Amino acid sequence: QALAQISRRASVALGSDLLAEPRPAMLVLAALATFGVAGAPVGALAAAPNLTCDSQGACPNEAAYSRDAALLQRSLDVSARAALRADALTGGRSAGSARDGRRVTSSAADSARRAAVTGVTSDCKTRLNVHEEHHSACVVTRDNKALLVWVPYGSAPGWDLPGGMKHHGESACETAERETCEETGVQVRAVERLASNIFRCEVVAEHVCTSPVDEGFLRKQWARKEDLGALQYRGGTWGDKQGFLSSALQEGEPQPASQEGEPQPDQADTCGCNACNGEGFSSTRQQCAVGSITDVNEACACAQQDACGCRACAGEGWSSSRGRCARGSDTDPQEACACLRRNGAAGSVQIAVPEPTRESLTTTLPRDSTDCGTRLGAWGKSNAACVVVRGSRALLVWVPYGGEPGWDLPGGKRNSGELACQTAEREVCEETGFQVRATRQMTGAVFECEIVAENVCRNPVDEGFLKKKWANVWELGRLQYRGNTWGDKQGLLRSALDRSSSSQSGQVVAERAAVTGV
Fold first, then answer.
1. What is the DSSP code string of 415-483?
2. pLDDT per position as a tens digit, 361-384
3. How many structural domains does the chain have?
4. Is there a domain that residue 516 lies in?
């Protein structure tokens, strides 16, 4: 009876929206976190198991309870103190009304009250197409430093990402923006989704939120990349915080000056971005941005030649080992900068790409056009996918539908009579336009594939062509992956990129030996 009474008090204090789908363990933790037991302090949840969540914030059941408790502890004072503030802001009328012992919250009143306190509104819900509601946080970087807040309470206090608990009717990105302002005073704008509940945010203005909310303003610091490994992080929140921060800071680092110490040329790549200063074209923001990389598809859209004069639309890129454009290579930012330096102010010259032939307009690959079954000894028949690597990056496609949308390996369902390797090759072409050749079987349903030609499949099939991304190895830990497909996608991608890196190193050594005889 005592436990039931505590649980009811917690429900009233924390609001019905927070316990819309209460788990028994979560309700008990909420009650304990809010009121303590036998006079124990609020942080007396130290008995929670030492469990961890993965880099995307997903947790096993027991870890989820621990995480929920930590989140609830972070916003403990939404009970009495929040009600008093709400009364003060609304002329003595609380936005919630007591009914059947539960607090009913009006989302419209919440939004109005939030805007009155912070003066902040957001368009991220439509701009980033984020309609889910989650407790969320921001990764905020500025001048090669990342913003962190010190959370002194809970069972594992430490440095944390600014963020917290959602309000009813608030999208995940709006939660992240609001919580950052309420905890730090810094108004931010979500610009990219890093995980289901983590967003990369940029600073809009400082000293915007000036009235303390919930736990009030937290102590903050701007940490450099080299400081991240020495920090004490708060336990049980937001997955791999250090990984998210490290990736964001690596993205924001400008490219170093040349070894000779000469100044970087103020010249633009194919999309008008200064590659020598670490800029690239951002499709999300439709503008040049430090930390972005102008990939092949963006270069193709901006112009018909990249910064090194290679025909990006025809699958060419600069090969440093060969000293020329080569099919299958990919011009990276350092190579683009070197080409701009060599070419001087002349820049890149536009050339026409030949019109595609009738053969290049083939919708799908005929099943008998591939010998992958015989070549690989792969006679299994199943749905299948490819890991496609070019240079130092791996190909991913964004799948927007299903229960867990995200980045995925290109692949799909088997057609009647197809071998698994044939399915993988065909699906890659139908989803990306790339004709590929399976070269190695990695698992029963996943093959390592190499690009044979681009723009081969031109007519959309089924869901049509998907958004593509060439991902660097350091990005893999921060991507939002599609759920429940192809097993350990991140592990497969890392394995293929490691093999590619070793192979390229061996090729460079062999070419040097052929030239020098050494």
1. PTT--HHHHHHHHHHHHHS-EEEEEEE-SSSEEEEEEEESS---S--TT-PPEEEEEEGGGGGGS-BPT
2. 334 454 445 789 889 998 988 999
3. 3
4. no
